[in-house]
Amino acid sequence: MRKIGWVSIMAASAALAACGTPVTEAPEQPPTEAPSSDPARTTDPAAPDEPVPTSRPTASEDGRPPLDNSAAQAEDGSCLAELGREKAEELSEQCYAMSPATRPPCNIQNSCERIREELERGCAFGDTSDNPGYCSEV
Questions:
Q1: Alpha-carbon torsion, ordered 38, 41, 45, 51, to 10 deg
Q2: Residue 136: exposed, middle, or buried by beta-carbon count in 10 A (0-12, 13-18, 19+)?
Q3: Helix (H) or strand (E) holding 85
Q4: What's the DSSP call for residue 77?
Q5: 79 and 112 in contact (C-beta within 8 Å)?
Q6: Distance between CA atoms of 119 and 70, rounded to whole angstroms?
Q7: Closest to 101 in 3D by CA, of 113, 85, 117
Q8: What is the separation of C-alpha 41 from the centre of its chain, rounded to a whole number of angstroms?
Q9: Which listed residue, 11, 22, 81, 110, has the most CB atoms within 10 A of its CB?
Q10: Exposed e or buried b for every residue in 30-62, given b needs 16+ CB within 10 A?
Q11: List of residues 6+ apart from 93 with CB closer than 8 A
Q12: Cβ distance 100 to 126 under 8 Å?
């Protein structure tokens, strides 16, 4: 009876060990470069493939949906009622571009004061050396 128990354990261990995939290392091969569609283009391995952005990301680049004020209606106390659509949308877009918030209060149905406060907060956030010119006017 002892032999059967020991044999059963060994058989189960062997079966479980066989379930794993063997670890094999691929032989080292030098990376191959994809053919370029531009024969005049030379590849500098030290240079980055993508240009380095010099400005803050746009709303779509940072994961937020684009700002849409198209359905906004002018209500008492709203920035839309205070400044008119064109100027209110300009202020709203500046606020949205600079705000670090996920859902910033930059909608033109908010008060202009609230939008300017968020714009000022966004302009003061992080590295301010590359801020747009309108930040100095806030």
A1: -90
A2: exposed
A3: helix 85-98
A4: T
A5: yes
A6: 20
A7: 117
A8: 29
A9: 110
A10: eeeeeeeeeeeeeeeeeeeeeeeeeebeebeee
A11: 67, 106
A12: yes
pTM: 0.55
Phi, psi of 97 (to 5 degrees): -70, -35
For residues 11, 12, 17 and 21, what is the CA-based torsion angle, rounded to 10 degrees? 110
Q: How far is Cα 92 from Cα 100, in angstroms, rounded to an integer? A: 14
Q: Is 123 exposed, middle or buried (0-12, 13-18, 19+ CB in 10 A)?
A: buried
User: What type of residue sits at position 116?
Assistant: R
Indicate left, alpha or beta for 25 from its phi (over 0: left) and psi (-120 to 50: alpha). Answer: beta
At 22-34, the pLDDT tens digits run 555 555 665 555 5
Q: Which residues of 73-102 are buried (b: 16+ CB within 10 A; e: fewer)?
A: eeeeebbbbbbeeeebbebbbbbbbbbeee
The percent of residues above 90 in pLDDT, for the chain, comes to 39
| Residue located via tokens 């956030």 | 125
For the chain, helix, strand, coil in percent to 5 are: 40, 0, 60
| Strands in 67-117 per DSSP E | none
